[in-house]
Amino acid sequence: MFKWLDGKKSTEGSKPHSLSIDGLTEQIKSQLHVGDDLNFRNLKRDEQKLVFCYMKSLIDKTALDEFIIAPIQENTHTEWTCEAIAKILPIADLSAQNQLDGVVEGINVGKVYIYVEGQPYGILGNVSKTVERGVEKAETESLVYGPKIAFTESLSGNVNILRQNIKDLNLCMEDLTVGTRTKAKAKLIYIKDIAAEENINSLREKISQLEIDHVAGTTVLGQLIESNSWTVFPQLVTTELPDRVSIALMRGKVVVLMDRSPDALYGPTPFFTFFESTEDVYMRWNMGLALRFLRLQAAFLSVLLTPAYVAVLTYHYEVIPSPLLVSLGQSRANVPFPPVFEALLLEFFIELLREAGARLPTKVGQTMGIVGGIVIGQAAVDAGFTSNILIIIIALSALGSFTTPSYLMGTAIRMVRFPIILLAGFWGGIGIMIAFCFFIIHLLKLDTLGGSYLSPVYPLRWKDLGYSFFRVPTQYLSKRPLTNQPIDVQRFSAQKAKKKDVDE
Amino acid sequence: MNVNLHPKESLLFNAFLLMFIIHSVQSGVGIVGLPRIIFLDAKHDAWIAVFLAGVLTSVILWSMIMMLKQYDSADLYGIHVDVFGKWLGNFLSIVYMVYLTACFFVIILNYVEIVQVWIFPNLPTWQLVLVLILLAVYAVYGGIRVMVGVSFLSVTGTLWLLLVIFVPLRYTDFTHIFPIMNVDIYHMIKGIKSTTLSIMGFEILMFVYPFVKEKRRALLYVQIGNLFTTLTFTLVTFISVLFFAEDSLSKVIWPVISMLKIVRLPNLERFEFIAVSFWMLVILPNMCFYLWAASKGFSRIIKRTQKMGIWIIASLAFVASFFIKARYQMNLVTDMIAKVGFYAAFCYPVILTIIVYLKKWLSRRKQSHAEPS
Questions:
Q1: pTM of the entire predicted model
Q2: CA A223 – CA A502 distance, rounded (Å)
């Protein structure tokens, strides 16, 4: 009956704690240096002594009073032995312990240790509480359409949301621990008969092989397990949207959740995944397609526009038709700098504005818009720092980079611009092409969990293009994306979805 | 050395990608000057000469595949050893490596020349050469998978240039091609031979073949790739013949770029600036595959790492670029490579195929004689 009681009675290397309460108190105090946070509550009955050891800040006080202390005090007839006490405690999470290390560890995670003097072991009861914020709307990935719920910092809460979304019994969760010192809990989540074994294994292996003291969250975890850490491009997606994670799981991706981190990390995620928004799925397909194209185009222009301006105005002004060249020349007539310097200066302004806006509290942040838009924009032109046309171009490319749904990718796109502007300043169009060729090769070299980073495009997978590059009506997406190498490929029967003939 | 090369499963690529590889290595710097060179020999029937050269290429590709099919999964280096033995075979391989290196060099130099003429007259040659070589080295370091990707993206990324070539069609005169087929055979053959430098590159097939997944279907896709090249080249030559007056075509060195001058969009003129820059993407797979095939020799013949080979070849090409200073030297080298290329890419594979078949036939006969019947 008390099988759970012979749990970890003696593990090697640790020793049983002292059998006297005073000795135990001393031992625990010598291990945990937390000041008056550590509490010892003593009870006495018929020469028997009982102690509750706990940390005040980690436990739920009412739970301790009601479910632990009260039953023991009220049941005056029960013997004070471990088995008897365990019987009367209305607590789900109980375990036996007599090792000092185990006791200290238990107290450290918010358990209360109940020990009767002279007994061979005591009981650890879980009355811990965690400070959590409530479930809120998504902040970093804001949406017009679709569920508004976002992940929080609580692992169990996040798991709850996910399991509510997907009630498939094959939704598996494996426990992992991250950080040799911080020992954060993490969960590897996948759907057993969809996600490819290789992806699961590679992610599990990478995380369990990590030997680092502290991992600050899933974003950092992502950086640690990516295969190329030099590149600017993120190779795994982090998101705070549970519905996005559910869609990814159903397509055969593997997810990692970490305690105290409000983001989920998932892979394999090729380049174009970063330009997908859940809204593409919620929209009607044609609008979704148009918006996705708009976004890809915006990202492309955002990288190319300023360098093109620099290249054309420095070297290839023949390219511009003469009427346009006149107005360009007029607006640049007052500017004493070469185009490269002018462009870098204004890009620097915009980056400053963005960074300041992100750091400041929201109330002050609003003024940044006014400062940026009116003061700097207008004044810079009046002072002859930049041309009007460059302001338009820079504003366009800044807007373009913000349309990318993934904040990491958006930042990468904005940073990539600077070396290209410099190259355009050196070699004009040739410089831009050098950067372009470099990035093509670079993207080809990257991989995400061992798969190709440019996946549906190269290696070409026609069927997957409908998922990530285009957006096609659902009846053509009867198969899961092959990029994720799903085990169960079929989503629904394509045969049944076929249209009937006329008058059939 | 093993005759057959058995790459890891993950390095193999689908046969249909051969289509892109063949097309991308065939179309390079040559095509921008192609119409004029053929026009000098075959006059207004130049486009027929180009088309015939494409047909000839298709025959040679067929013979190459026939030869490669005699082996399980061999490349040219392996076949050399198998046919000619260790010493002579490796010697021929090294000669071929030198040829591949020279091609790598000529492609880069030709592109740099075009850039210097059209965009930056004062750009020092070594700067752009260095950057292009480094780009190629970076790609080749990624191995065959990355290079096939480069050729795939290069073809799909430059397809739109083909549409631009239709713009000059509005300013053409159809009477330029008449009378059709009135150039004599000698000039026609000369024209075909002149096409070689531009249409060359398909000899890379003999090196990538071991990496093809479905070897049975290689022939089909190789032919499709070559067909696409042939049609593109013929189209470009055809339009140039129509576009330029008879004398002017023989006077413009890069007729294709000159034609693109007249393309204009509402916000863009002088399209050739963009085309010349964009051409870098067209020649990128050429550089990569020549550098890769040549450096492959280091790991196949000399048993050194391919990385070492890459750097040796890259630095050789870089140093060599300092010796070419003037346009006439450029021309000399290019012509020389074109001549060598005609023998190395067009004649040699056919001869080798015949030798391979003879050898197989002989050994089969010897076997049947040796067996007591």
A1: 0.90
A2: 55
